[in-house]
Amino acid sequence: MDPGFTARANLVLRYTEDGRVVTAPASTVDQFETEIDAFSDAILQGQPNLTPGEEGLRDTQIQMACYESARTGGVVPLVSG
Q1: What are phi and psi of 72, to 5 degrees?
Q2: pLDDT-derived band of residue 69, with 50, 70 and 90 as boundaries?
Q3: How far apart are the C-alpha atoms of 63 and 76, rounded to whole Å?
Q4: Separation between Cα atoms, residue 28 and residue 61, nearest integer Å
Q5: How far apart are CA 41 and CA 49, in angstroms?
Q6: Whole-number Å distance between alpha carbons of 69 and 75
Q7: CA–CA dist 46, 2 (Å, integer)
């Protein structure tokens, strides 16, 4: 997958807290690299994936509900399960 995705562990996060700009080093752990490594290992070892597709589907449903709430200004219920 070269070049695929690039990790930027040296990024600096800047955010405003009480009117000030605060800087902090980004995490040295690349969550996506770790997730892809675990997925590859699961395939090679014939084991279940630690991050199932259902989790990704749920994340997407939550994101879509956020967009709908922002668009309508209303509450969008999430169906569990």
Answers
A1: -95, -20
A2: very high
A3: 11
A4: 29
A5: 9
A6: 6
A7: 25
3 pLDDT band, cuts 50/70/90, is: very low
**Domain ranges (residues) in the chain:** 12-72
HEC profile of the chain: CCCCCCCCCCCEEEEEECCEEEEEECCCCCHHHHHHHHHHHHHHHCCCCCCCHHHHHHHHHHHHHHHHHHHHCCCCCCCCC
Q: Tell me the sheet residues that pair with 25.
A: 12
Q: Is the pTM of this model over 0.90?
A: no
Q: From CA 80, how far away is CA 67, in angstroms rounded?
A: 18
Please list, in sequence order, all residues whose beta carbon lies within 8 angstroms of the beta carbon of residue 23, skipping any fewer than 6 positions away. Answer: 12, 13, 14
The predicted structure's pLDDT at residue 2: 45
